[in-house]
Amino acid sequence: xxxxxxxxxxxxxxxxxxxxxxxxxxxxxxxxxxxxxxxxxxxxxxxxxxxxxxxxxxxxxxxxxxxxxxxxxxxxxxxxxxxxxxxxxxxxxxxxxxxxxxxxxxxxxxxxxxxxxxxxxxxxxxxxxxxxxxxxxxxxxxxxxxxxxxxxxxxxxxxxxxxxxxxxxxxxxxxxxxxxxxx
Length: 183
Fold this sequence. Notes:
The chain has helices at about 1-35, 40-45, 50-55, 155-160; strands at about 65-70, 75-95, 100-115, 120-140, 145-150, 165. By secondary structure, the chain is of the alpha+beta class. The protein has one domain (about 1-175). The longest helix has about 35 residues, at about 1-35. The relative contact order is 0.15. This is Lipoprotein. Keywords: Signal. It comes from Rhizobium leguminosarum.
């Protein structure tokens, strides 16, 4: 009995450690990928992987669509992009009769601080859980019941707290937003 308790605790700690390692690895990969943009024209960065040839080749090398832009008082602009990130799948199966699986996908944020000259001066990245689905299969997968649990679109302010700049700072370190233009 005591052995089973120790084994269970060790397994739980080990699995928690694996998810933390995976999260850190994903974060490092996102930071490495986003760092490519530094010093490049924003127009080139925003169109990366968007050409018809890149799409035909199956290239997923993209920062995703722009989800927002904020001009700053210092004359620079923050451009926000979001794209699908890492996907994980877990499952169980009982003798082919009943099984369950969970698939979840993170969304990767790539933010770019762009100068008045159109060049990327700094970047920030982060991630948030995107979509998730839970499925139960019966009789070897002939019958499937799935629940889709998509994340609701959040405000930019909620996304902004999930990213860190190249130096590990919040994007507020880039400057204050400019006053909105009133017509």
